[in-house]
Amino acid sequence: MNQKILSRNNVKVIGNGTQSIIFAPGFGCDQSVWTSVATALSDEYQIILFDYVGSGNSDLRAYDMNRYSTLDGYAQDVLDVCRALDLKEAVFVGHSVGSMIGMLASLSHPHYFSHLIMLGPSPCYLNDPPDYYGGFEKEQLLGLIEMMEKNYIGWATVFAATLLNNTNRPEIKSELAERFCSTDPIIARQFAEVTFFADNRKDLAKVTVPSLILQCSDDIIAPSVVGQYLYQHLPDSTLVKMVATGHCPHMSHPEETVQVIRHFLKEATFNGRQADRGEPV
């Protein structure tokens, strides 16, 4: 076990199960956003939580602007954690950009993962007419980056509200804004640029790991057309439309999130057993 890697990414392992689940946060968040979901599943699974370098209680000294200039650097961190824990066929649950990070990790080392579960994923946030609608024009995203530079605290408040999309739980909006504010603004800005200007559409067809796409209702960041695009282009994928609104169902609607994850994994286990016995699935 590589303790240096585990310390770098502030890795925590809890739970009682034999099957491992890795939870990856979205942009600007740390592992604490998974508390409700992870706790609910910890009796059935071994839970692995981590922070991206530059977020939460990770080792800030390990932040390298070149390494983290693309999502590949974050994907390599995930692979480092898998290697350090000697994981095989773990379930990867990623939120937002965390979904794409896990997907990229699976392309180079698919044996680490049994399934990918994506909450509010998007392979590209930019509109690319006439064939693709990601939800944003380039000018909008540049404006977001500019606001981060000029008024980071104000940006954090506005962006948290946008993510949750008028949730009835204002305390979650405050929690999100606090998490954004706890990140170094320079690191947050680079991560934002890497996240919102990434285009992983061409990578979708290469994925070999079965995937679950969780599409929230009224999600401004990842609209329903994006979920449909992923479903059409991601091999061996399942699309579930959630009742949960906004972009952070693991925080705003943890009960539904747990229910959908649990159901998917039980179905996958059952189908796997049927296939092992040579029975029709």
TrEMBL record:
Q: Where is the AB hydrolase-1 domain?
A: 21-259
Q: Which Pfam families does the UniProt entry name for this protein?
A: Abhydrolase_6
Q: Which domain of life is it from?
A: Bacteria
Its transmembrane ranges are none
**This protein's record includes keyword Endoplasmic reticulum:** no
A GO molecular function annotation here is: hydrolase activity
* Alphabetic keyword roster: Hydrolase
Does this entry carry the keyword Acetylation?
no
Say which family it is in: Belongs to the AB hydrolase superfamily.
* Name of this protein: Alpha/beta fold hydrolase
